[in-house]
């Protein structure tokens, strides 16, 4: 700048810093535009898998999806760098303008993430449809019938499993209700006395059962002794008879 006295006035240091920061911002904005364009290109490619190449495109989905995620990660890095530059502006207007750009980028990257997820789902649907279109013509009538029966069997098994699950759930609810009712009744004085009486009766029944077991054991031992005595008596009778016969023979001769 030239004054009236032909002397020069150089720019201030703040102006120079502002220009440097603005240049860095422009550089990041250009990198953002290029990376965003690459992301959109990869998403279009990903969403088209399965339409032309059929099932063979399934092998390309993981690599393309990984490359797409790398580009989105680069966009996040650019946002962080731009936020750092935004704080270097010398004026409040410059800082606010840069932060508005940061917010716009964050909104855009959120939309890109959603579009990326939709592109993956679209590729999966395309490949599944291509697989079905390749398999269905090769199926014979018997194969179709077998497949239908398998699907019906799976549906029946699923329905049975759901029925069992519902039954278990109802049983659990009934058990909880019974436990709650029992807990409530146990807090009543009259019911507590009734429970004590039941416990005493149970103890008495236990003693009676033990007595019955002892009596049954004694009866078994008595029957065993009686059997032994019967055998002994039979032997004594036989010996006595034999002795009488021997005496008779001796007396006769």
TrEMBL record:
InterPro entries associated with the record: Sec20 (IPR005606)
Keyword Coiled coil: yes
Keywords: Coiled coil
One GO-annotated biological process of the protein: retrograde vesicle-mediated transport, Golgi to endoplasmic reticulum
Domain of life: Eukaryota
PANTHER family: BNIP1-RELATED, VESICLE TRANSPORT PROTEIN SEC20
Record protein name field: Uncharacterized protein
């Amino acid at each position: 700048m030239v004054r009236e006295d032909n002397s020069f006035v150089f720019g201030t240091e703040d102006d120079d810093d502002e220009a440097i920061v603005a240049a860095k911002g422009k550089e990041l904005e250009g990198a953002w535009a290029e990376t965003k364009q690459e992301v959109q290109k990869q998403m279009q490619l990903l969403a088209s898998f399965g339409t032309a190449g059929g099932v063979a495109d399934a092998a390309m989905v993981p690599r393309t999806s990984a490359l797409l995620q790398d580009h989105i990660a680069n966009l996040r890095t650019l946002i962080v760098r731009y936020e750092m530059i935004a704080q270097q502006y010398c004026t409040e207007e410059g800082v606010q303008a840069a932060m508005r750009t940061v917010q716009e980028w964050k909104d855009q990257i959120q939309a890109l993430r959603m579009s990326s997820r939709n592109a993956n789902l679209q590729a999966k649907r395309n490949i599944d449809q291509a697989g079905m279109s390749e398999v269905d013509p090769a199926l014979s009538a018997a194969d179709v019938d077998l497949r239908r029966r398998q699907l019906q069997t799976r549906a029946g098994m699923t329905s049975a499993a759901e029925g069992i699950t519902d039954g278990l759930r109802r049983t659990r609810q009934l058990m909880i209700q019974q436990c709650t009712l029992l807990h409530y009744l146990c807090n009543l004085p009259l019911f507590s006395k009734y429970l004590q009486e039941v416990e005493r009766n149970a103890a008495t029944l236990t003693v009676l059962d033990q007595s019955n077991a002892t009596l049954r054991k004694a009866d078994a031992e008595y029957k065993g002794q009686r059997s032994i005595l019967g055998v002994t008596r039979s032997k004594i009778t036989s010996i006595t008879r034999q002795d009488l016969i021997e005496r008779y023979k001796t007396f006769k001769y």
